[in-house]
Amino acid sequence: MCTLALGWQLFDDVPIVVAANRDEANGRPAEPPLQYADKPRVIAPRDSRAGGTWIGYNAAGVFVGITNRWVDREGERSRGQLVADCLGTDSTSAAVEHVRTAVDGDSYAGFNLAIADQTRAVLVEWDGDLSVTNLDAGVHVIVNVGLNGQNFEPAGRVVVSRQQAANAKRLRSVLQPEPDETADEWLERAKRALGNHDYGVCIHGEGFGTRSATVISLETVDGELYDRYWFADGPPCRSPFRRVESSL
User: Fold this and answer.
1) Which end of the chain is more exposed for a tag (fewer CB within 10 A), N or C?
2) Cβ–Cβ < 8 Å for 23, 2
3) Could you tell me the pTM of the whole model?
4) CA atoms within 13 A on the CB side of 145
């Protein structure tokens, strides 16, 4: 997945809203969102090849999503498996500690990992060195080359990395909450933004492109977690978002 917008603590009682596009090779098989695991209960799509996932949340209210990080680094273990591991934890802090241990024990390609619950949101970056950034309340957009338009420039990809950073800035700007906007209204705007080519995050290439899109909100009512999940099984510029019936 190459674009992930995380809105943290934007709305009362809705600590987490997410809008994300997954860019992948056209031939790589995947299963749509379902109950991925049951201890704890996890809702996530599944990568049919490696068995991991790229985005999801669990019954404890922990959200996890990943993007590639454009660094010259190979990995033996699937990054999607690491996402699945983090979804087995009960807090952002526990997930971060798991990642610290995981990168010492296994080899991973570069990644940007967003993790959030009601009390803490972080971006974990791995390029051979591990960096953990606590995120303030607000909208944060993560792409292959960094956070909120603050990009690095990988060798051979200078032009496209600058374009990605510009796309992230534009998307972050348009996804700022409007006066008196509700979480549901934000989610509807986010769906349209993910498929709007003016923001450059819905891509179509030769054998590669935006394969799916996800919009999520996690809401707390009287201490109970309520989840809402819409999934477009194809590029969001032409694929409808359909409500995912979860079991949380």
Assistant:
1) C
2) yes
3) 0.96
4) 21
